[in-house]
Design brief:
The protein is 77% helix and 0% strand. It is mostly helical. α2 packs antiparallel against α3 and α4 runs parallel beside α7. It has twelve helices and no strands. The chain has one domain.
Length: 291
């Protein structure tokens, strides 16, 4: 990758890696769907401001809007809701580790959907080691807390949606302006999550604590608006498999922030699971030529 790619890659990892902590903070006052609704709404407002300032034309045809609406569901609304709901029963550090499985699912999906990203022996070995890491993480709660198991499975399912969406983005948004790849999906996800929160979590609770608003603004403006702008740019510049490797950075920042600021425990399962999952990504990409 070029220097500019590495700078954006690291910045994206820091923004998203810290998001798990802010989700945990936001959940102390608001329900999961309400949190996501506020998050995507603030991200959408950020996107509108950028579009206005840069005078970027808004897509007008159904063909242009269809992939953006689909990505709003598969890459934002559904995975955001799953992760936020999952963090009701699991620590932010565990969620950040599980989110690091996105590249593994991307490798699998890309093999069937992309001509230039096929499966190889290192990728197969990486998938097996990554699966072992997930099993280790789940083993801590199996038989003791069904809620924690379901929470972890929800985050894993979100990772599948992220992986599929990254490949879909590469295939169907090549001619879409960079900011519209972010603003378009945020627009559709704002509608979906606003309606979902109003139905599922009625009456909606408006946050009153300053820290909750800080969490929502961070998750919206940085964790959604800025982050997706960077992510969609990297997907087209360096490919979906390499772009989703940004989740390499999640366990380090997620576990550290969770332990320092939220007092979350760091067990041997968390340490071993993180090592196996991050190690699996290194194995899966062994011998790959840099972009």
């Amino acid at each position: 990758m070029k220097t500019k790619h590495w700078i954006l890659f690291i910045l994206l990892g820091l923004i998203w890696g810290s998001s798990f902590m802010w989700i945990e903070i936001g959940l102390r006052e608001v329900a999961p769907f309400t949190l996501v609704a506020f998050r995507v709404f603030f991200g959408f407002l950020f996107g509108l401001v950028v579009v206005f300032l840069q005078k970027i034309p808004i897509p007008r045809t159904r063909a242009e809007w269809t992939p953006l609406i689909i990505l709003g569901l598969t890459n934002i609304a559904i995975p955001f809701a799953l992760i936020t709901w999952g963090q009701k029963s699991i620590d932010s550090g565990v969620a950040s580790i599980l989110d690091a499985t996105v590249p593994l699912f991307t490798i699998l999906i890309a093999h069937f959907m992309l001509d230039d990203d096929k499966m190889s022996l290192p990728k197969v070995l990486g998938l097996l080691v990554g699966f072992a890491g997930v099993v280790v993480l789940l083993s801590e709660d199996v038989g003791s807390s069904a809620g924690s198991v379901w929470g972890q499975l929800a985050v894993i399912l979100a990772c599948v949606f992220y992986a599929g969406s990254s490949v879909y983005t590469r295939l169907f948004t090549k001619d879409t302006a960079g900011i519209m790849r972010s603003m378009g999906p945020l627009a559709s996800s704002t509608v979906v999550m606003g309606v979902s929160a109003a139905i599922i979590e009625a009456p909606l609770k408006i946050p009153s604590l300053p820290m909750t608003w800080i969490a929502l603004l961070w998750l919206g403006i940085l964790g959604s608006g800025v982050a997706f702008l960077i992510m969609f740019y990297l997907m087209h510049e360096i490919g979906p498999t390499r772009a989703t490797m940004v989740t390499y950075l999640f366990p380090l920042s997620g576990v550290t922030l969770g332990a320092v600021f939220l007092g979350e425990a760091v067990t041997w399962q968390i340490i071993v699971g993180a090592i196996l999952i991050v190690g699996s990504l290194a194995i899966a990409n062994w011998g790959e030529k840099p972009a």
